[in-house]
Amino acid sequence: MGYQGHFRVWRGSDEGGGLEDFTVEVNEGEVVLDVIHRLQATQTPDLAVRWNCKAGKCGSCSAEINGKPRLLCMTRMSVFAEDETVTVTPMRTFPVIRDLVTDVSYNYQKAREIPAFKPPAGVAPGEYRMQQVDVERSQEFRKCIECFLCNNTCHVIRDHEENKESFAGPRFLMRVAELEMHPLDQADRVQEAQSSHGLGLCNITKCCTEVCPEHIKITDNALIPMKERVADRRYDPIVWLGNKLFRNKS
Amino acid sequence: MRAQIAQRTLRTDRWWLPPLATFAGLLLISIYAAVRTFMGDHYWVDEYRYLTPMYSPCLTEECLPNAAHFGRLLPELPGFLTPPVIIIPFLLGFRVTCYYYRKAYYRAAWMSPPACAVAEPHAKYTGETRFPLIAQNLHRYFFYAASLLLLINVYDAFYAFSTGIGLGNIVLLVNVGLLAAYTLSCHSCRHIAGGRLKHFSKHPVRYWAWTQISKLNAKHMQLAWASLIFVCVTDLYVALVASGTIADLRFVN
Ligand code: SF4
Ligand code: SF4
Ligand code: FES
To answer: Which of A116, A115, A89, A87 lies closest to A101 in space, CA to CA?
Structure first.
């Protein structure tokens, strides 16, 4: 059965804006994106919203609903009470373009900063041979739909704009982990994870994991294993002492 | 420019409840542990050979002779210090640098962040990149130390069976079971066992160990709380029996 739902939607641009109230029809089985579309069709033809697949697979419709970072197309209206006001705002961490649409180029920038997969010398594509158990571990990370909800939620950049330069965000630290765990990758990624991609800024508070719509265990399976690898290399007192005693002389 | 939204968060659920509960829980347990540490008494039941895990191993001159399973190797401690102060830095170090507890107190005590998508109150943030927090990277060394202490606790638990079986024995046994599960589920343990390998296929035994530890690791938070609370329960039980407040329930003898 349909009902009249209360919506509060952020409208504006990078010059300013605010929350606006709407009353709009909600039908059984709908998701938040359906209602946003109805708003567009009936009351606010110029409301900007980015979406594509409506199946939780393209990662376009990331926004914040009642303060929680989520996909508009995967948030069922049935999780809200009929008299509850549903507040929809754009992702906070990225610059807003208009209404619910943000400029996510930070993420593309960070993606480019990660050196590509480096196969062993002399092995051409098509000649890669790997054991199933060796590739299996990083497959989880390949479920990522690049919605960037994790980067949006991570307090390292959400609450501290100035950290954007030095922090790749959980999405791309996970990419570093994926390559590092790849059985054929030859690049040394451990030092870079700490020095260039900002792994040390992560304090493993797991908000990335909490919001990931693909339920990837980002913190447990990518970030913490990377921190342990960095500890192997940089914070092992025995290795450190060895370097001090023997290598520094050269 | 970001979208201008004045509110610190628009979350409508009770996001403040988990950090508050965590804070209260950690505070209560810390108070209990501090009181028991500085009490310096009621840690050993001579009749049934129960030793509380908080005083194990008891290594200094002031330990009761029978409670010092490995001998009183260290001289008497000065002033108000009690035997546990020798081992507590390692036990506390293990828990404080644990990846789960870090999450817990960064959120609950330091509010960095208090909950997801709730702005933190700090103007600057450097994470674990500098002193003192860079020292969190030493977690694995505390893991080694805690594993050793755990072995001693296991020894204590079995040693106590030499006089028969009572409820205290069961309590001690459950305690070491939980401590072992917590210690094995540690992220550093998972890494050392097999996580650091790039080619699982070349190390089938370590791969198997990693797979098992990964299953436990998924429950690391639950095990952290269960083992922490149960250490206090065990200690309280031993204290109550040792002080004669309650009698141990005996099953055999
Ligand atoms: S676990 Fe690390 S990367 Fe993930 S949200 Fe928290 S601080 Fe950011
Ligand atoms: S890791 Fe999860 S939250 Fe992050 S971009 Fe990928 S799918 Fe989205
Ligand atoms: S991560 Fe929690 S004990 Fe090691």
So the answer is: A89
Looking at the DSSP bridge assignments, the partners of residue A64 are A69, A89
Model pTM score: 0.95
Please report residues of A whose CB lies closer than 8 A to that of B19: none
The rounded distance, in Å, linking the Cα atoms of B101 and B185 is: 13
**Which residue of A74, A140, A147 sits with most ligand 2 atoms within 8 Å of its CB, as the best mutation to test the pocket?**
A147
The CATH label, of 3.40.50.880, 3.40.50.300, 3.40.47.10, 3.10.20.30, for the domain at A3-102 is 3.10.20.30
Q: E strands within A28-84?
A: 62-65, 68-71
d(CA A141, CA A226) in angstroms, rounded, equals: 14
**B94 sits in which H/E element:** helix B88-97
**Å between A200 CA and nearest CA of chain B:** 5
pLDDT over 60 at A13, yes or no: yes
Residue A62 · residue A71 · CB < 8 Å: yes
Q: Which residue type is seen at A246?
A: F
| Chain A hits for B105, Cβ within 8 Å | none
Place of tokens 């070491």: B176
Contact B97, B139 (CB under 8 A): yes
| CA dihedral of A237, B210, B91, B93, whole degrees rounded to 10 | 40
Q: Domain boundaries in chain A?
A: 3-102, 105-247
The neighbouring-strand residues paired with A101 are: A98
CA dihedral B32, B35, B40, B44 (to 10 degrees): -20
pLDDT digits (tens, 9 = 90+) for A39-73: 999 999 999 999 999 999 999 999 999 999 999 99
Please tell me the class of the A105-247 domain. Answer: mainly alpha
Question: Which run of H or E residues covers position A187?
Answer: none
Tell me if chain A has a CB within 8 Å of the CB of B217: yes
- What distance in Å separates the CA atoms of residue B70 and residue B232, rounded to the nearest whole number? 23
**Best of B98, B102, B110, B116 to disrupt the A interface by mutation (most A CBs within 10 Å)?**
B116
Q: Which atom of ligand 1 is nearest to the CA of A201?
A: 7
For A116-137, b/e burial (b = at least 16 CB within 10 A) is eeebeeeeeeeeeeeeebbbeb
ipTM: 0.95
- Bridge-based pairing of strands A101-102 and A96-98 is antiparallel
